[in-house]
Amino acid sequence: MSKRTIQKKVCLLGDFAVGKTSLVRRFVEGRFDDKYLSTIGVKISRKSFTLEDTLLNLLIWDLAGGDDFRQIGNSYLRGASAALIVCDLTRHDTLDSFHYYTAQLHQTMPNASLVFIGNKVDLAEQRVIDKNEIEAISQELGGPYLETSAKTGFQVESAFHFLANSLLNTL
């Protein structure tokens, strides 16, 4: 039996400096860079892997966060099958944006799958977002929640694979 091949557009959404680019770099290239470079516009990466009997090609759109996204967001979201919506566990204001990014995604692509990510779990001393609070918001917005660390790699693969499985389940 031959494998089927599916290509899906996945967007990373979240405020400035929550770690979207670092998560993509860790997942696609297996590395982390401490130097912060703000994404301008969008950077598209590709990662292919096999799940069950399917070769899944993910086109990962790393979108600029914050005000840049508010100006251009909907056009970049068109065609997205899924999104990881990311907050920084050391900055509470980034959690407040979960509602905004979820609304934008659903307005443009109502059937898109989503997974909520609390990034920078390795910075336990600076953590200000309580796990129960973020889980409640994620549940209210209709998506699962995972904690990651782009720096250490903790659960980064799991987050993308979780999203990929949800994509396969909607076929």
* The CATH superfamily title: P-loop containing nucleotide triphosphate hydrolases
Identify the overall geometry. Answer: globular
Q: Helical residue percent? A: 25-40%
The secondary-structure class comes to: alpha/beta
Strand sequence of the main sheet, in spatial order? 2-3-1-4-5-6
Q: Which percent band covers the strand fraction?
A: 25-35%
Walkthrough of the structure:
- By secondary structure, the protein is an alpha/beta fold.
- The chain has a single domain, classed as P-loop containing nucleotide triphosphate hydrolases (Rossmann fold), CATH 3.40.50.
- Helix content is 37%, strand content 29%.
- It contains five helices and six strands.
- The chain has helices at 20-29, 66-77, 93-108, 131-141, 156-169; strands spanning 4-13, 42-51, 54-63, 80-88, 113-119, 145-147.
- The longest helix has 16 residues, at 93-108.
- The protein is globular and about 50 Å long.
- It starts with a strand and ends with a helix.
List keywords for this structure.
about 170 residues, alpha/beta, Rossmann fold, six-stranded mixed β-sheet, 5 helices, 6 strands, about 30% strand, globular
Quick structural gist:
With about 170 residues, this protein is of the alpha/beta class. The chain has helices spanning about 20-30, 65-75, 95-110, 130-140, 155-170, and strands at about 5-15, 40-50, 55-65, 80-90, 115-120, 145. Strand 4, helix 3 and strand 5 (about 115-120) form a beta-alpha-beta unit.
